[in-house]
Amino acid sequence: MDQIRHFQDEWLIRWAIKLPSVSLAWIAELKRNQLPFLSQVLVDAGLASPEWVYELYERHWRIPAWEPSADAVDPAVLELIPAKVCCRHFLLPFRRTEGTIDIAMANPLDPCALDDIVAYARLKPVVHFSLPGRLYGVIHEVFRPAVSTV
């Protein structure tokens, strides 16, 4: 029997099945292929726009989007959370303010990632959603060469 795992953004299934060309059978096949993020699959397949996914996070979780850009990352904030933690959880600190740290996350609902952020940064995280593919590229750009050894 094929092992079926969960997407890290499993909650999106409820909305994805309302899109044309998306079925529960198709989603089950994606799970068997062990694709980690439904949001990225929908965007890559042209079935949903990034804006559609951003709006769902904003509307249902009150989590704003952040479009990943290496130029928008404060280099000083990168020292607060190790590259290996950022790669493991698909997250990127990008700004620090009084008592808080802004974090872009592919899964901003991940309690283990949030615990790691607090443990390392010792600041209250302000989470933002970013599409995993775009976020992954910026993580590797800002942390090189550290991520090559992770």
Q: How would you describe this protein?
A:
This protein is α+β, with helices and mostly antiparallel strands and 150 residues long. 41% of the residues lie in helices and 13% in strands. It contains seven helices and three strands; from the N terminus they run αααααββαβα. It has a three-stranded mixed sheet, with helices on both faces. Strand 2, helix 6 and strand 3 form a beta-alpha-beta unit. The N and C termini lie far apart (33 Å).
Short summary:
The protein has 7 helices and 3 strands, in the order αααααββαβα. With about 150 residues, it is α+β, with helices and mostly antiparallel strands. The longest helix has 12 residues, at about 50-60.
CA gyration radius, whole angstroms: 16 Å
Give the helix proportion (percent range). 40-55%
CATH-defined topology of the largest domain: GMP Synthetase, Chain A, domain 3
CATH level-4 homologous superfamily of the largest domain: Type II secretion system, protein E, N-terminal domain
Strand content bin? 5-15%
Broad structural category: alpha+beta
Q: What is the total domain count? A: 2
Q: From the coordinates shown, what is the CATH architecture of the largest domain? A: 2-Layer Sandwich
Query: How much is the average pLDDT?
Result: 93
User: What is the terminal separation in angstroms?
Assistant: 33 Å
What is the number of strand segments? 3
Placed side by side, the strands forming the largest sheet appear as: 1-2-3
CATH class of the largest domain: Alpha Beta
Spell the H/E element sequence: HHHHHEEHEH
Main β-sheet: number of strands, strand sense, barrel status?
A: 3 strands, mixed
Counted by DSSP, the helix tally is 7
Name the overall outline.
elongated
User: Spans with pLDDT under 50 lasting ≥5 residues?
Assistant: none
